[in-house]
## 1
Amino acid sequence: MQRAPAGAAPSTRGTRDRRRGGPLRRVPLLVWMFLLVPLAVELFWVFWPAMNSFSLSFTSWKGVGAAKPVGLENYQRLAADPIFHTALRNNVIWVVGFGGLSVVGGLALAVALNRPGRGVGFYRSAIYLPMVISLAVTGLFWRVMYQPDGPIDAGLGVLGLDWLQRQWLADPDTALYAVLIAAVWRQVGYIMVLYLAGLKGTDPTLEEAAAVDGANAWQRFWRIVMPQLRGVNTVVFAVTVIDSLRTFDIVWAMTRGGPYNTTQLLSTYMFQQAFTVVNLGYGSAIAVVIFLLAIAFIITYLARQARAEES
């Protein structure tokens, strides 16, 4: 076998081969299993059903037998369905009310509790505690609160506001907003924690410099602190929009979409059509609408944020 002459440069082919895919080869098999097994489960239980919903939305299917292709018939029915229109309008109200109140309330609480003091940790834990409770249990708890002669009506009576007492969940004018308040009560602690984490990452020296220059508290917060929370705002916006569009448990536990469909959301109407009426094709069409709305909201917001950063 011919040997390389002394002093000759070593062959680089083996070095290139070792470099090629080297880091991947050094990853232990156990790590690959921890990565690939959850990915396979996610693909099977989440992504495949989601993609299947798109194909089902163009069919008529009762859950047994073969699905019958109907083209765009389900979407044409949605355009003429008054309950779908009510659910869509309620979802817009829900996104604005749930998102707006949760964000404003969570940010205000985060600013108020972002300082050392006696009992601050207790208040943070108490405000976050409702987030630990499931949405179904939260809905049952607030059903008791809203019952005739329940705690809310009793409190109004003590304050001399008897004229405000009513059957909150049975009144079409108040049912949706009563459920909305319950949902915000649970969500506000989560938003508070996100903003507390963001406030901990801000630079206090910038605010101190602005105070020395004569900026008041509002100017310091709006012009110094808020720009540093841009990343947190993006996360909060995505979370609130997605949670708004997929809200189901608390509405179903409190009203089941009633009275007279006045609290229907897209998620509850989809559930009714898919699993109560067993019209899976029509329910899948509603699910596709929910998905498209979520994507449209988030992409629009991210595009606006990108343009704002460029300018």
## 2
Amino acid sequence: MADSLPGTLGPLLKAARARLAAAAVADPALDARLIVEHLSGTTRTQAIADPECTVDAGAIAAIDAALRRRIAGEPVHRILGHREFYGLRLSLSQETLEPRPDTETLVEAVLPFVKATAERQGQCRILDLGTGTGAIALALLSAVPAAVATGVDISQGALATAMRNAGELGLADRFQVLKSDWFEKVFGRYHVIAANPPYIASIDIENLQDEVRDFDPRQALDGGVDGLSPYRNIAAEAAGFLEAEGRIAVEIGHTQRKEVTDIFSAAGYMPAGVFRDFGGNDRVLIFELTKP
């Protein structure tokens, strides 16, 4: 049985950090602070200025339960129920992939094209395949007021989460969702088709970090036998939904640049950009249709 937690903020933070550190959690100081601040309704400033402020018993119990979940391996943002992405606070659910900083690379990569299209045509229509939390589409909408987006997902739960996020961010009037298996029920044409598809080979799923394997939805990770099945689906069908001179932007696994480029090249696309993530790995590819 773990020691009981102190009832004042400074000692509470210290005890939470010590508990996580003893369990070899990767970043105990950050995770302890996130948990304590979220569940006690306090801030970092309060912890510094008034470390002896009292935390009520209900919050202490919730913090204790959250620390136990973290020690058991659950990611801290799953426990909190939200994560920040591109400066936006996004709610998570069991049906959504937890958006990660590497995916911000896709937003940055395609953003100049979205802005230019909106300025030139008065609107930029975006299709976000496998939208999950809505992260990619909502980040682009937040940056470009003339953009509109449709988020596609096979999971009704994911779509509900994405729509909730759009509402909380004040973007619901420019965002709609569609339940579809890739392009199955999609209609219309878009200036940008974006996707962070599942790209892990099925055989490699069990080798992922516990926090990913055990808590991210399997269908958002498993890219088929070689991890490339979603790219084949997108490359084969996207042309029917892409405006002339439109762009396709896809996130990839860091070793998949050649294979994914070959798939799109064979389907009539040419590369229009390669972008690296914060770790210097190939992470995003942009394609356009080859001109006749």
## 3
Amino acid sequence: MAGVLEAAHSADPAVRAGEAAAAAAVAAGDGLPPDVPLTDLTAAAFFDVDNTMMVGASIFHFARGLAARKFFTTADLAGFAWQQLKFRVGGRETAYSTTTGRDTALSFVAGRAVSEITELGEEIYDELMADRIWAGTRALAQMHLDAGQRVWLVTATPVELALIIARRLGLTGALGTVAESVDGIYTGRLVGEILHGPAKAHAVRALAVTEGLDLRRCTAYSDSVNDVPMLSAVGTAVAVNPDSELRDVAKERGWQIRDFRTGRKAARIGVPSVIGVGAIAGAVAAGLAARKR
């Protein structure tokens, strides 16, 4: 963790979050099995997770699993979901979803071991996430792997959980929100801010420098207009299961659009898709933070 903290030296929280995410991804090492050849080392693919690679929000599924283990109550979880719904309907980030949420992000894990949370993440992935992977998006990722390229997830989800998802899918690794830890124990603070919006683009650029990638030859995939900065940072952008705003941007810019949803399913998951927005700043901590105040 010390190396990650040293790498994240910028005063800008978004840049700092991106630098930390890239450093954590490099520190975790490549997740590809030894029999997967890497023949195209300057090209790579970057996939958002929530409603791009996975149905719904990974952090919300994780929070459900933690609630089942009495980390906080289902009422706390419902309260967070309601805050996110208000954010979606209101169309703007509220004080809750930015300042308050960011400041309390992951506060509930303060004093807990990183290894404990990682172990729980493994269990919860099997219980609540493994069956929610979009087959179509998984096939897109495999296409890049078969072409000898590396594939990273890029998500606001905690990097420990993001790495679990990447490993289970046979991907190279993941860029995720980095929670500060000292000697393997969480402090309850973030390094920079949530890996969201511009921070994702900073993470991709930082990783490209470290890994020798040519971003003009790279591809990015996302469902959300919030990821336009990341999609704009690469040579090929693909809107997957896009929200209406991203669909409009994609059409305007000539980006590819892939939609693996049926009309009924698209309507049903429309609200949960925003759970990923400010997810770290809520699903795993909102209820407890409120109860502590």
## 4
Amino acid sequence: MASHVNPTVRRRRLGQELRRLRELKGMTAEEVAERLLVSQSKISRLENGRRSISQRDVRDLCGVYEVDDRRIVESLMQMAKDSRQQGWWHAFGDIPYSVYIGLETEAASLRVYESLVVPGLLQTPRYARAVIPGVLPELPPDQLEKRTQVRLRRQERVEDPENPLRLWVVLDESALRRVVGGHAVMREQLEHLVEMSALPHVTVQVLPYDTGAHAGMSGTFSILEFDATSDSSVVYIEGVTSDLYLEKANDVNKYTIMYEHLRAQALNADQSREFIAAAAKRHADALS
């Protein structure tokens, strides 16, 4: 597969275009489903990019929407073909959050609020190998290593010399206090966090306990943004059995405002680095 083909993003862009064609035709998803003798949920999943789409699906939908321009039809069918190819993460087998990985791989910037653990993109290998089985205690050893390797591979976007991911993290103090894997692992992790936060495209802010109540107390979330104007921002909320992707402008705007409040309440970047370094020293002292 060509490295520039991202099947997740292709499905998303194709779904957006199919929704646009349906709306131009003035049809509801229910009406389209009835014409094609399929379920309404299938049409919805095709449009939101959560379901693989075949070239036959595209052809049938273009027929319903009376798309006469052959170039448009062929372009959409090529996108459908690309969307069925595999991203790098498929080499690791069935990854439950593969949709998110596809979006993260293509994103230009990522804003993360995390309340309990260091975000995966900034984790050290030893911290990752300690935190993953803690979160998923019944995970078999081979699955643990696979999850770890996927997490480390994802981190390549952060340090990509040609196209680094712009990363902004607001981190609750509890993530620095919770001893994951022991004091040696925590010292290494926090020292790595200080180092990464010094990169020009990475910002880490800490929300100390004495901040009190804040906008993130309802749960962690991430906001992904893309360079292509055709790709709207996505709010990602991770769940135990399923994940939530919010793409409606009103939803994204609400979470964007929440994030601005969190950034305003948190320590600034320099203060946060000092705070994290002090926490790393406490773990180092505990080892001596």
